[in-house]
Amino acid sequence: MAxxxxxxxxxxxxxxxxxxDENVFxxxxxxxxxxxxxxxxxxxLKEFGPKRVRDTPIAEEGFVGAAIGAAMLGLRPVVEIMTIxxxxxxxDQIVNHAAKIYGMFGGQCSVPMVIRxxxxxxxxxxxxxxxxxxLFYSFIPGLKVLAPSTPAEASSMLRAAIRxxxxxxxxxxxxxxxxxxEVPDDLEPAEIGRAAVTRPGTDVTxxxxxxxxxxxxxxxxxxxxxxxxAEIVDLRSLRPLDRxxxxxxxxxxxxxxxxxxxxxxxxxxxxxxxTIQEGAFDHLDAPVxxxxxxxxxxxxxxxxxxxxxxxxxxxxxxxxxxxxxxxx
Amino acid sequence: xxxxxTRTPARRAKTRAAQPEPETLVxxxxxxxLIRRFEERAARAYTEAKIGGYCHLNLGEEATVxxxxxxxxxxxxxxxxxxxxxxALARGIDARRVMAELYGRSTGVSKGWGGSMHMFDLESRxxxxxxxxxxxxxxxxxxxxAVNYKGGDEVVMCQMGDGTTNIGAFHESLNMAAxxxxxIVFVVINNGLGMGTTVxxxxxxxxxxxxxxxxxxESARVDGTDVVAVRDAAQAAVERARRESKPFLLxxxxxxxxxxxxxxxARYRTAEEKExxxxxxxxxxxxxxxxxxxxxxxxxxxxxxxxxxxxxxxAAAFADDSxxxxxxxxxxxxxxxxxxxxxxxxxxxxxx
Lengths: 328, 352
Ligand SMILES: Cc1ncc(C[n+]2csc(CCOP(=O)(O)OP(=O)(O)O)c2C)c(N)n1
Ligand SMILES: [Mg+2]
Hints:
The complex is a heterodimer. Chain A is 37% helix and 20% strand. By secondary structure, chain A is an alpha/beta fold. In chain A, the strands form three sheets. A seven-stranded mixed beta sheet of chain A has the order 3-2-4-5-7-6-12, sandwiched between helices. In chain A, strands 9-11-10-13-14 form a five-stranded mixed beta sheet, sandwiched between helices. Chain A has a two-stranded antiparallel ribbon with strand order 1-8. Chain B has one domain: Rossmann fold (3-Layer(aba) Sandwich). In chain B, the strands form two sheets. A seven-stranded mixed beta sheet of chain B has the order 1-8-9-5-4-2-3, sandwiched between helices. Chain B has a two-stranded antiparallel ribbon with strand order 6-7. In chain B, helix 6 links the parallel strand 4 and strand 5 (184-190). Chain B is globular. Chain B starts with a strand and ends in a 31-residue tail after the last helix. Chains A and B meet through helix 3, helix 4, helix 5, helix 9 and helix 10 of A and strand 3, helix 5 and helix 6 of B. The structure holds thiamine diphosphate (TPP) and magnesium ion. The site of thiamine diphosphate (TPP) has 15 residues of chain B, from strand 4 and strand 6. Chain B: The pyruvate dehydrogenase complex catalyzes the overall conversion of pyruvate to acetyl-CoA and CO(2). Chain B: It catalyses: N(6)-[(R)-lipoyl]-L-lysyl-[protein] + pyruvate + H(+) = N(6)-[(R)-S(8)-acetyldihydrolipoyl]-L-lysyl-[protein] + CO2.
């Protein structure tokens, strides 16, 4: 057991997997000589050389597509897209090819690749660099979308993603890279598609993922001092979605609040709310609430940015309102 | 036979290979004829509503397709656009399986999941027809990267249309292929049109092969109605890619004898243009050439034609008799690695 940052957990896992399987290689912009915009690939070029740590031109469509083609021939590329905002340039290759090749050709060829990319606002990066568009990928059958929130999950889920034969979009978060946590030695690959109850509680279920799982934990601490016992479900996998774990929790607590870092209208929370009304209708004592980013292009100004982003305080407010609405 | 115009910043054009044996020429003729009759049969089946979706034909491109495929070794990989029936045939896939794919049957090359635009066959290394213009270029580039990664000696051929040279993926892919010295031959099938738009109306550099110079990549333009010229030009590019691991851009020029797809009457073409197409028919032209050379007379051609027609009719009958995929297989190909929580619901099924 070692304590390390989310960043180091990712880096160590990449290195382990590259040592384990020589078909695993990494590619992306600035991942070699520059050692990664967020230093996830630090030291890898020195250790593995340019064949396995491939710096690419600024050509997201081109190099993501090339990774898909390499995966079709049996390699296991791990592509880094600098931030999820730039993945929009590769949307066609991800949606029309990575996600389609297995099915569209009748199961003859799989695409064992991973796209690692961080989302996240709150860094004063302005509207084009602060988005959470994981929904776009979570919408697509054929993709798997993972969103770990702790260093241990980052490690076990990246391991699973690399060994999986399907294209995996692996969502990281700028605000999580420096967070610390314990990572057990000899961590097994995670089971893809499983949510976790990360904090048991009895009064309300908070459903969150990635950065919002931390916000939810902070909110739950505050709520506990008011005598509200919140259960947290960390989704961890956005596709496939572990609906059972969500619904099973809400059936016990009788009400739910979704904490999401994307925009509310049509967002991840909308899917969770729909899931809850279909799977736990008779158990609901209050409407499902969603706490999400204000629906604006995120401003640069710090006070405006802070106002727009969901926080522990906003979540606490929504949870209190929800619990009150149950009339218990 | 037509000439090859080569633009070689670093190297002179290769001298022309020896004229092939008569049997080889007859085999090419037969291959071209098969593509012609297959496509005509497909067009008919389409009007009979046996085939759905879009259906783009290789009519006018028979010499190009045949010449290109003759230049590949069985171990080489091929990526194409959606106009790929002829490539599938020339790659050696049974006409029955190609037709069955058009009919959407489970016996089709892609088991009825791909249709006209998405033929895939691992055995013959046809790694896909792709319906998104330019989508195949990054994939093919990555396949060539994988060949190098594994230290193999296969070559990747990546086919596309003239209009495709204007999409961003073209630039990104050629740049990477040249930057990384990948064993890939990009082939632009210049049939003069992308749907109804001429090359001149869409490309600021209408001599498309010249675009390679932006990447210091060698390139050539060849008469796509001349099967031997196409084969020789492609072979030179393919073998150089194999030997030196260097990419190449080959442009072939040929007429598109009909509309963009089966349903396009091509009203944007003038009567004179349509008349001129008759003169440009590569199959008729090759037939006459073989006759003049004393290799294949009219009688022999008629015999071949009957043979090929029978093959195509048999393919259509096979397709028609083949079963549709069973609805119970609808959820079979969403993921290669099984995973919990995959929705297997038909539209009205409840979530819980
Ligand atoms: C990205 C994208 N944009 C538009 C289309 C619609 N489309 C299909 S074929 C085509 C013309 C392509 O022309 P060209 O590359 O010359 O190929 P050809 O059809 O002549 O073989 C267009 C615009 C598409 N399939 N994909
Ligand atoms: Mg064209």
